[in-house]
Amino acid sequence: MAIAIYPGSFDPITNGHIDVLDRASKIFERVIVVVLANTSKNCLFSMEDRLEMIEEAVKSYPNVAIDSYRGLTAHYAEQHGANLLIRGLRAVSDFDAELRIALTNKKLNPSLETIFLMTSPEYLFLSSSTVKEIASMGGCTGGMVPVAIEERLRIKYQREE
Ligand code: ADP
Questions:
Q1: pLDDT tens digit sequence for 21-35
Q2: Confidence (pTM)
Q3: Which secondary-structure segment (H or E) carries 69?
Q4: Most buried among 27, 28, 46, 62, by the most CB within 10 A?
């Protein structure tokens, strides 16, 4: 069975991530969204919150599962019998870092193949950091994240003011 993992920090999951997932779910038999706990990023949302938001966003996809992991993506793939890794590509600026990550993962786990899905044009400039920046200044994140996440962002920044 073709099991693909889609790793990232998803802080929070955006409509750009969901679009990649939606397309991946039609290509691969099983997709596991892996929320990584050990990125150098300082996350706004706790692991629990991030998992909850993804759960809500992908509940209609029967072949999409969610997991969390503290460790190397290459090791997670090995442990779960996944040999495909999905990453989304936006502008050229993503390419450099993504190529480095893909080659490193390949070195750590030679059977792991990274597959890039191009962003849909409407999400070209959408990222979790952009969404957080807009929300932190009271801007509207409509169309960028699911409605429930818009609300969570609003509450988060209200509390922190
Ligand atoms: P990381 O913390 O590893 O960069 P992210 O949670 O930011 O992970 O993103 C996970 C994956 O989703 C990455 O491959 C990223 O390039 C991709 N991605 C993020 N936003 C978009 C988007 N708007 N369109 C397509 N892919 C995206």
A1: 999 999 999 999 999
A2: 0.94
A3: strand 64-69
A4: 28
C-alpha distances (whole Å) from 95 to each of 14, 88, 103 are 20, 10, 12
Nearest-CA residue for ligand 1 atom 23 is 16
In this structure, whether the domain defined by 3-160 belongs to CATH 3.40.50.620 is answered with: yes
Extract the tokens encoding 30: 């099983």
The active-site residue out of 9, 17, 50, 132 is 17
DSSP of 112-148, one letter per residue? -EEEEEEPPGGGTT--HHHHHHHHHTT---BTTB-HH
Mutual orientation of helices 15-27 and 47-58 as an angle, nearest 10°? 60
Which residue's CA is the nearest one to ligand 1's atom 4? 8
